[in-house]
Structures are given as C-alpha cells and as structure tokens.
Inverse folding.
C-alpha cells in the first residue's frame, strides 16, 4: 500500500516543501511561470495545487506523496547531521532531498562500522511508528566475531535473561542462528545502543563485521552500497492475514 496521497497545497508551500526555494522567494518563481499543474501555469502563490500533478521548471515533483526509500548504508558513514562526525550518510543523498521541509531522517540508526539496510523518510508519523519501542519491528543482522561462539549462546539469547553491562532490564528474546564457528544471523526486536555488539561482547565474542540485510519483511537484496530504491509502508508492515477478521 503506498503512502496516502498528499492533499492539494498552496503553490508557494509546494515550492518550499519540496526544497525549491523559500516561501518568500516563491511568488517570483510563480510569476515567472516556473510552476505548472495539470499542464497549466500556476498564476498565484495562494492557488492550491496537487503535488503529483505539478512540475517545476519542467520537472515533476520527486516523491510528491512523501519520501520513503530503502538505503544501503556503507561502512564508514555516520547516521548523524553533525558535521564533526563526517563522513555522514546524508552526504550520499541527492542535495535536493536535504532541502525538503521537513528533510529526510533515518528510521533508527546503524553505527559507523555497520553496513546494510536503513530506511529514510520525511514522514514523521512513519518514523515515530517504526522507532517506537512498542512497534517491535524485527531486524536481522549478519555477524562475524573474532572468537568461537559458546555452545549455549543461542539458548542464552533466546531466554530473554541477558542483561547488558550498565543496564538492569534484560534484552528481549532474540533468535541466533549460527552458520559457522564465528558467523551467525541474529534477529532482534529492539534497538538499544550498540545492542548487537554488546550482546556478543558480553559472552567473549567481539564483533568484527556487522551487516543488516533486513528490517521486518523488507530485504536489502542486491541494492548496492550507497544506493536506494523507493518503497512503501507495506514493505515493512505487510497486511496481516487476519486483518478485517472478527
């Protein structure tokens, strides 16, 4: 299911919302005939127009119903807006995206040395829903460690009794599938600070590489590092089989 269509908005609001110019600059753009809706030039800043049927300087509005993409974060980039932490994930995005109001944000984070799937959106409602602890969106990680796994590690992770250093509340049960003495796949439903690395370090297995190939039902697939593709909310939250049943 695609995100709900954006209702008609003022022409000057459209120009600022999608990062073309400020509201103050918008009237001059409109007077110059740079905004067209359904094939007709927009004449006034207060005219309400459909973003999906509009173009600016001959180019259609990108993501008129809201930006929502799957992104392959490479190792070495921080999920931050702080220039002191550069290089940043946002440095890899089209500059026009960063001019949108509001600009896109990551849904959760991956640390600098972790690669893989991250979702970007400018829809605050979706971001809040997917980052809420109550949502429990499952996240899948591929892990390599520098010591062999303890034999009982999968059972410990599944027990829901693991308490991380400096915390008092145990981690939720997690599913560990060991694929070799030092590689595994881990599925968790929460996102504490550096949680995956801390879970393994607590049992003498420091993580050497960490990659996230999936969030919920959304798969990274063959998406290249630094690349993105449009998605819909249903890609992460597929319709339940019992939806609509009593």
């Amino acid at each position: 299911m695609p995100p709900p269509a954006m209702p008609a908005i003022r022409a000057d609001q459209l120009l600022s919302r999608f990062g073309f110019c400020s509201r103050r600059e918008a009237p001059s753009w409109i007077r110059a005939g740079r905004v067209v809706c359904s094939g007709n030039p927009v004449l006034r800043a207060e005219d309400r127009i459909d973003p999906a049927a509009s173009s600016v300087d001959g180019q259609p509005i990108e993501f008129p119903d809201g930006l929502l993409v799957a992104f392959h974060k490479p190792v070495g980039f921080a999920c931050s807006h702080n220039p002191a932490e550069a290089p940043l994930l946002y440095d890899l995005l089209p500059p026009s995206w960063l001019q949108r109001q509001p600009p896109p944000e990551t849904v959760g984070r991956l640390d600098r040395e972790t690669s893989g799937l991250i979702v970007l959106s400018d829809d605050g409602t979706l971001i809040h829903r997917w980052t809420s602890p109550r949502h429990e969106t499952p996240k899948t990680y591929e892990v390599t460690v520098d010591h062999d796994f303890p034999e009982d590690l999968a059972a410990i992770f599944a027990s829901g009794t693991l308490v991380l250093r400096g915390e008092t509340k145990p981690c939720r049960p997690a599913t560990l599938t060991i694929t070799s003495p030092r590689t595994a796949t881990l599925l968790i439903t929460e996102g504490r600070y550096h949680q995956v690395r801390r879970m393994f370090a607590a049992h003498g297995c420091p993580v050497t590489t960490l990659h996230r190939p999936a969030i919920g039902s959304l798969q990274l697939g063959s998406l290249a590092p630094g690349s993105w593709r449009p998605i819909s909310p249903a890609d992460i939250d597929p319709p339940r089989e019992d939806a609509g049943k009593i």
